[in-house]
Amino acid sequence: MSRFMRLNTLRNQILLGFMLVMIVVLASVGYFTFDQVSVLLRNNAEKHIQQTAVQTTGKLDALLQQINTLTAQVALSATTQRLLNEEIAGHPISFGDRQMLQQEVRKYEAYATGIRSLELYTADYRRLLPLDDIRLTERVSSAWIDHVDEEMGRLVWFGLDPQNPDGVVAIRSIRLIDKSFSHAGYLMVHIEKSYFELTDSTMESEMRESMGLFDQTGKTIFSDFPAEVDSKELLNHVGESIAVGGKNYIAIQKQSEAAGWTLAILTPMDYVTEGITVLRTNIVVSGVVGGLLFLIFTFILSTMITRPILNLIKAMRGARFGTLKPSPITSTTMEINELNNSYNQMVVDLNELIKVVYEKEILQSRTELKALQAQINPHFLFNTLEAFYWELEDKGEEELAHIVVAMSGLFRYVINKIDEEEWVTLGDELDHAERYLKIMAMRMMDRLSWRIEADEASRRVPVPKLLIQPLVENAILHGVEQRVGPGTVILRVEPGSRLDYTKVSVIDDGPGMDQEKLRSLYAVMRTGHVSSATGHGIGIVNVERRLRLSYDTATDGLDIKSEKGQGTTVTFEIPNEYGSDIERENDTHRG
Q1: DSSP collapsed to 3 states, 355-381
Q2: Distance CA 534, CA 240 (A)
Q3: Which positions ≥6 away from 91 have C-beta within 8 Å?
Q4: Domain at 458, CATH number
């Protein structure tokens, strides 16, 4: 045991630990070298392939732009514009005009390669060129035509021709320049598939890339892939290694912005991993040499560290008791000396930090005490309002006295904790709304008249607290105050349309809302998010959310009826006994 303790020194632990770490590192590098280098080389090769894909896509876009320019010239030619303008004006194009138009279109076709035919149609899908009676709807689907209309004159590439798979179809809408670019017809161009062959014959070799061009639906426009390649499977494994005919390939893809087509490239894995053996050998040799040097320097470093560090440990042990004190020990080694200086600076900083924290705790305690002393007891507010009431009674200001009483009741109802009175009776809510209406009637004087219609039985229905007053406030702010002259607010409680349900309505004769604003308000209620900078609709949204949260599916939420100039009615129906159990539970807790 004593022999083991003598060998269990810090230097031996550092040396043994570093040796074990190095062995693990070398073993891990040896195990993962092949995969890691393969990934590295593959990433570099993919960058090269991506550049090739970008160049090829650029070539494709240039070909597409040639067709786009040609079709634009045909669509904007004077003859095409004139004849379609007459067609729109109600003068059908004669057969002679169609022959003349055909001759002019043939001139454009002569300057372009790969174009099989150009087809011209009127706005009602009748074909002008070639000279037959086939309609556009017989050539392509209505979905294609709708897409062309949405592009407002831009050339739309659809891929393979549904009636002739040997060609590619693109369509553009013809717009009349003299009639504010109004729609006048369609121009369809049919291109040979050979036009889109993107490979370079000078690159042909055993290791060159294979390319394929596919339209939006995955149909092949051009491909020089090996026969064993499944195009659909290839598009689903982009960026992965796939095996074809006993050889491994890497697949990447690039999308053309002009046509939305996909360019896929297959590159042999042998090209990607070329030179991996040489790199692997270099990495292994470098690891072995580095490991030996690591062990030598670790032995020297462990000896340099262990001796002076013991003195520093002794100084640190002395700091475990009482106040932290700096260590007077110095060393000729720069690192150890810096470590000792850092320790001394840490001691100084810790002593200062302890002092600062102690002072902050004292200051925080004093601040909290002052904050507690500054709190206002709500009862002080109620007692003050009651004192105002008695003083106004003594002076004969009965109307103002009643307003003060209403304000006191309003504040007392709102300030009470929600967790104590989450559910109240409908009578409490009507009393609260009545106090609010009295205060608003005093502010607005003769501009506001109101009444509350409710029988005694309905006043016992339990409801969530503060459910009705926001609706009344909304009726005054956006109803009565927005009209010219006096207005009326009616708060009506009556039996609902369903058995054991109560219906609550808030009615105003304000300016009302048009249907667009009403739909917008319903949209805000559904999302629960008020986007208006003024915050209008917050009260409606809050009431709607509280109804949904409190009653779940037992209520249909708020129903708003309004017409421009006819006022607004906000209604909701609630079950009569839904909140009874909750109310009894709250009463039990309060008891």
Answers
A1: HHHHHHHHHHHHHHHHHHHHCCCHHHH
A2: 54
A3: none
A4: 3.30.565.10
> Do residue 495 and residue 556 come from a single domain?
yes
Task: Locate 416 and state its tokens.
Answer: 């009470």
Q: Count CB-CB contacts under 10 A for residue 580.
A: 13
pLDDT tens readout for residues 225-267: 776 566 666 666 555 667 766 677 777 777 787 788 888 887 7
Distance, in Å, from the CA atom of 544 to the CA atom of 556, rounded to the nearest integer, reads 9
Tell me the sheet residues that pair with 508.
Answer: 489, 568
pLDDT at 8 over 80: no
DSSP letter string, 521-560: HHHHHHHT----TT-TTHHHHHHHHHHHHHHGGG----EE
pLDDT 10s digits, 124-157: 888 888 888 888 888 888 888 899 888 888 899 8
Do 90 and 127 share a structural domain? yes
Residue that finishes a domain, picked among 250, 272, 294: 272
Radius of gyration over every alpha carbon of the chain, rounded to an integer in angstroms: 43
- Note the pLDDT tens digit of each residue in 475-510: 998 899 888 889 999 999 999 999 999 999 999 999
Tokens of 114: 């790969």
pLDDT attached to residue 242: 73
| DSSP summary character for residue 92 | P
CATH of the domain at 219: 3.30.450.20
What DSSP line would sit under 111-148, residue for residue?
T-SSEEEEEEEETTSBEEESSS--BHHHHS-HHHHHHH
| 36, two tokens | 């890691």
Number of H helices and E strands in the chain, helices first, is 17, 17
3-state SS, 179-212, equals HCCEEEEEEEEEEEHHHHCCCCHHHCCCCCCEEE
The burial of 142, by beta-carbon neighbours within 10 Å (0-12 exposed, 13-18 middle, 19 or more buried), is given as: exposed
Q: How many CA atoms lie within 13 A of 442 on its CB side?
A: 14
3-state secondary structure of 223: strand
> Measured between alpha carbons, how far is 549 from 537 in angstroms, rounded to an integer?
18
In a domain, 524, yes or no: yes
d(CA 492, CA 576): 16
From residue 301, alpha-carbon distances to 13, 15, 155, 308, 538 in Å are 12, 9, 73, 12, 70
Q: What predicted TM-score, i.e. pTM, was given to this entire model?
A: 0.42
Q: Which two tokens stand for residue 56?
A: 């090829």
Distance, in Å, from the CA atom of 253 to the CA atom of 234, rounded to the nearest integer, reads 10
The residue whose two tokens read 């062309």 is 148
Q: Which of 348, 356, 352, 358 is nearest to 319 (CA)?
A: 348
Q: Are residues 461 and 533 in the same domain?
A: yes
Q: Are residues 559 and 506 in the same domain?
A: yes
Q: Which pair of structure tokens corresponds to residue 154?
A: 């831009």
Count: domains in the chain: 3
| Amino acid occupying residue 385 | L
User: Within this chain, do residues 514 and 499 fall inside the same structural domain, yes or no?
Assistant: yes
Cβ(173)–Cβ(152) below 8 Å: yes
